[in-house]
Design goal:
Sulfite Oxidase, Chain A, domain 2; 10% helix; mainly beta; Immunoglobulin-like; 5-stranded mixed beta sheet; 21 strands
Amino acid sequence: MHLGTAGFAAMGYPSLLRAQDADRNILEETIADLEYLTHHNEFELVERGNPLPYKLPPEKRLAIGMERESWKLDVIADRETNARVDNPLSREKGTALDFKGLLKLAGKRPTRFLKVMTCNNMATPLGMGLWEGVPLREAIWAARPSANIRRVFYYGHHNEDPEQMFRSSLPIGRVLEDPPGDHPVILCYKLNGEWLGGENGGPVRIIVPEAYGFKSVKWLKTVVLTNAPAANDTYASGNNDIDSWMKTMCRFIHKPTKVKAGSPIPLTGLAQVGVGGLEKVQVWVKPQQDGEWPKDDPYFTKAPWQDTTILPPPEKWGGGLPGGKLPTDVRFFTAEGKPAHWPMRYTIAHWATLLKGMVPGKYDIYCRTIDNGGNAQPMPRPFRKSGRNKIEGSPITIEG
């Protein structure tokens, strides 16, 4: 994950790491390369569509509703079921929700929250953002649903080609009511305080806070309220668990591959904080000469893991925000602009540690998380189709 090159300087991490002065300087230099929020043009992209809507000429984008001036959203009943919507928002009827109407729904207090964008089948997150928008339920209530609705189907612009349509869905209950401690599903129009660009799904996309990226459909144009009992998600055809929450896991960022003996070795990484929260990040240094680990312990549960330090919230959040400061009214932040708790679910946390006293040789270094329930990565859900969280290992050589 590309995290930028500025953001955590002068934040007091060295004292938290309790290192000696010389070691403190090493850690401070390493941590200074971290930035919490990903700039909008540095997100890794997972895209569908040929051609991609945002790469069309401006006049074409305007014509198909891929610009804020022309964007419209249908919120309609499923014609194939007996779902009832008394005031459908429809392009066909001239009543679709436009961008000005969307901002009117947001009013003076739009919904803002932090979320990591991540794919269930990729090894690392795609980017960490501050997302802003309107709860999807506001648009649904504007359409006045009245009976026989069990799910919300939604999809974006994919060139009017049925073969390219990318769809996802949620239970209506999840959209209308948020689980305790979770954010609402939103119609998102800003990322890190800027209008959402086409490469990141603009002018409007869905953001589902607790879910992997395939639930947060880009280039949104249509919401269908249905009495169908089952999901219609495109990702289901790929043998994916389409109802899985994000998992807790960690990855390396800074991991030297060759170091002189006697030199302290700084390690940094990020932890993806899933539904289980995050209690610890640990590392294990395994000499390669020890051979293969016993096959009856595939997740290294009996290894001599050591705790690292989970870094506190940054003072400067990065991501292109003016002065690196978050706006007001970010969900689950205090009036003073501090997180109400840390680490926050569905975000990332950075971690760091310093390895010392390693003798010459070849080693493998592993990292893992422990969630708030005491589950060590990749448990409690080790199956890849419900989200990838394999323990990461990295080789390192200590030269004499």
